[in-house]
Amino acid sequence: MLTGKQKRYLRSEAHHLNPIFQVGKGGVNENMNTQISEALEARELIKVSILQNCEDDKNTVADEIASGTGAKIVQIIGHTIILYKESKENKKIALPK
């Protein structure tokens, strides 16, 4: 689990990022989880946007992506999810203790 301090730090780091994935009518699938995993390995911190036509609840979508990729949910704001996963090879973000 992430501490409050770590979440605050990650939120400030994610502020300037644009969403690089969109979840639409089809919801979350295996292929999307694979692509998100690869993006997390490269970047560690990403935003995912949930489109208006998505039939699933935003919390359900966030949970599905988190469990499918092993990422941690930093925050859900409106229709945007911020995800963090420590990279094995491209470690860029040093979390506060």
UniProtKB/TrEMBL annotation:
Domain named CRM: residues: 1-96
Top-rank lineage group of the source organism: Bacteria
InterPro entries: RNA-binding_CRM, RNA-binding_domain, RNA-binding_YhbY, YhbY-like_sf
Endpoints of the signal sequence: none
Pfam families (alphabetical): CRS1_YhbY
Gene3D superfamilies: YhbY-like
Keywords, in A-Z order: RNA-binding
One example GO MF annotation: RNA binding
PANTHER family: RNA-BINDING PROTEIN YHBY
Protein name: Ribosome assembly RNA-binding protein YhbY
Gene name per UniProt: yhbY
